[in-house]
Amino acid sequence: MALRVVGSGLGRTGTRSLKDALELLLGEPCYHMMECFPRPEHPARWTAAIQGERTDWDDLFDGFAATVDWPSAACWKELAEAYPDALVLHSERPADEWFRSADQTILETFKKPRDEWPTPGVDDWWDMAVAMFEDFTPDFLARDALMAAVEAWNADVRTSAPADRLLVWKTGDGWEPICAALDLPVPAEPFPHINTTEQFRKGAGLE
What does pTM read for this prediction? Predict the structure, then answer.
């Protein structure tokens, strides 16, 4: 099936909640970083895609109706072009809030000397994460550089995405803007709120 939603928002912008919300709305799976776990061949494919190699998107997203979060957000422009009818859903939060959350979650694994990092080509997951972050900003462990990259990313999406297909969504906006953009009714149940910093750290064994 063709993607109906292409997520351009970075991880830690409510993307795990958006995954569940979109699955409820569309009745089909939404691709998120967690979908790589049962698909061990995907991290290497994402590394190649992020590095500019030609990718069979229909095959990669077979069975999915939407995508949010990294690693797919790293290729949102290519995906928006490949699926011209898809909504570009851009989730964002203030850069300082984003950094506080990311620093305690997805950046934790990088907080060791570089000479202790896995050798390239040994760990597909590690290679994907490094490619993803270095594409975002080479200096991704420096607070100021990372926050500047967040601001630049958000600005680029706002100016690059087709205006008639772009929805900028912030945590707390809930169902209404998404349902309006997709022309779907608003569910009666509360909007999902999943994968808080505390939940992430507990699940990842960081506590």
Answer: 0.91
